[in-house]
Specification:
- The chain has about 400 residues and is an alpha/beta fold.
- It has helices at about 5-10, 10-20, 25-30, 30-35, 45-55, 110-115, 170-180, 200-215, 235-250, 295-315, 340-355, 400-410; strands spanning about 115-120, 135-140, 155-160, 185-190, 220-225, 260, 320-325, 370-375.
- Strands 5-4-3-2-1-8-7-6 form an eight-stranded parallel beta sheet.
- Helix 11 (about 340-355) packs parallel to helix 12 (about 400-410).
- The longest helix has 18 residues, at about 200-215.
- The protein is globular and about 50 Å long.
- It starts with a helix and ends with a helix.
Length: about 400
């Protein structure tokens, strides 16, 4: 779950430095603060330099209230939870391939194209991602010239804090011009108060503006809605409010080329750990998931089916669905050791690849429920449980080797 606050942390310090330095330094450094270079890679800029660039250009969220402190997981370790549903297993000597007969009909993507990763620590070419075999990635930002190691597809993302958007329209235009046919995600978890934090009306307005602009600039592009953190009843209601606001504002149904969700399992309670309550909704609680639910495969599956059912009931079954962020965020001492995380990852891969539904699935993809997915994450410092690479050494982790082995085991 890439945090908007990561982009904002250096902004005040930068402003103070500019004031003290005076107009001369402002003019001299103007290019550095108005936008990122056309290409930023591990061979050109350090990871720290690229993050500073993003921190400088990211505008503050236009809200009067103080910034909400992220509390995704409990701050104090609970009594360790010991799973009885999944035994800890030694890494399998032979990986089982999905059952070919479980999905029939057309295949929209090659297998590699379905598998993706979220890149929380940039840039991607600091890591030997070829060892994963994944076909696409997202790093929660817009890039006119993104790295594409081993031909990986880069998915553009425009942030929509509080109903505004970032980066600026010129950067978005440059990326659209340079990357025709790209997939664009509008927003990152607008339902979460410490992410893009947009009310349904705010989101409907900014989505309309950006969708219209992107399609006018590049008619071949595809536009995806920003992923809600998890498809629970509370957050499906939030999506319904977006659709209703859009219809009311523009007199037409909201057009979404690609539906997109995140698929975490986190508590919904005002002021508690988890993902709190979506902006614009007065409820104080939704589903009160416990820590041990976080890696529950049956809950995970149910959420995917629930969202596909929601799509079908709103006439959106004929659209692809991607899960652009999911994984295990809880640390090992909360009851989520490596073996459990590995098993959860494998089981979700199996589920995505093999599960189809003749009444809910996407007809153009053999009625599969999900077309593409991205594991969280390639490498992260705050939520490292699911790391495929070590953020310090840049070496592949055991879980990263498991990810790559799974793809190698598929014909």
């Amino acid at each position: 779950m890439k945090r908007l606050s990561d982009f904002l942390s250096a902004r005040n310090a930068l402003a103070a430095a500019m004031i003290l330095a005076g107009a001369f330094l402002i003019i001299r450094n103007w290019d550095a603060v108005t936008g990122p270079p056309a290409s930023v890679s591990g061979t050109q800029e350090s990871e720290e330099t690229e993050q500073q660039i993003h921190q400088m250009i990211m505008p503050a969220t236009p809200q009067a209230e103080p910034t909400v402190v992220e509390r995704l997981i409990p701050s104090l370790p609970p009594t360790p939870f010991v799973s009885t549903s999944r035994p800890s297993l030694e890494p399998p000597a032979v990986l089982f391939s999905p059952t070919p007969s479980s999905v029939e009909g057309a295949s929209l993507f090659l297998t590699r194209e379905r598998f993706g990763v979220g890149v929380a620590v940039r840039p991607i070419d600091l890591f030997d991602v070829a060892r994963l075999g994944a076909g696409w990635y997202v790093n929660w930002w817009v890039h006119p010239n993104p790295p594409r190691p081993k031909g990986m597809e880069f998915v553009q993302m425009i942030r929509v804090p509080g109903g505004s958007y970032a980066p600026d329209i010129d950067t978005i235009a440059a990326a659209a011009d340079a990357n025709p046919g790209s997939l664009w995600i509008i927003g990152n978890e607008p339902d979460v108060v410490w992410q893009d934090n947009a009310t349904p009306t705010e989101y409907a307005q900014v989505y309309h503006e950006l969708y219209t602009f992107l399609k006018g600039r590049d008619p071949s592009c595809r536009v995806a809605i920003g992923g809600i953190s998890q498809p629970t009843p509370l957050r499906l209601r939030y999506l319904d409010m977006i659709l209703e606001a859009y219809q009311s504002l523009y007199g037409q149904k909201m057009t979404v080329d690609v539906w997109n969700i995140h698929a975490f399992i986190l508590r919904e309670e005002e002021g508690s750990w988890g993902v709190d309550i979506p902006p614009g909704i007065s409820d104080t609680k939704g589903i009160l998931y416990e820590i041990e639910d976080h890696g529950d495969l049956e809950i995970f599956k149910r959420q995917i089916v629930d969202f596909r059912r929601w799509m079908e009931e709103r006439g959106e079954r004929e659209k692809p669905l991607i899960v652009s962020e999911y994984g295990v965020l809880m640390p090992e001492d909360y009851g989520f050791p490596y073996e459990m995380v590995r098993d959860f990852m494998y089981e979700t891969f199996d589920y995505f690849l093999t599960t189809a539904d003749d009444n809910l699935g996407y007809p153009d993809d053999g009625n599969r429920l999900v077309q593409r997915w991205a594991w969280y994450s390639l490498s992260d410092t705050r939520y490292p449980t699911g790391n495929l690479f070590d953020p310090e050494t840049k070496e592949i982790t055991p879980l990263g080797r498991d990810y790559g082995s799974y793809l190698e085991g598929i014909p």
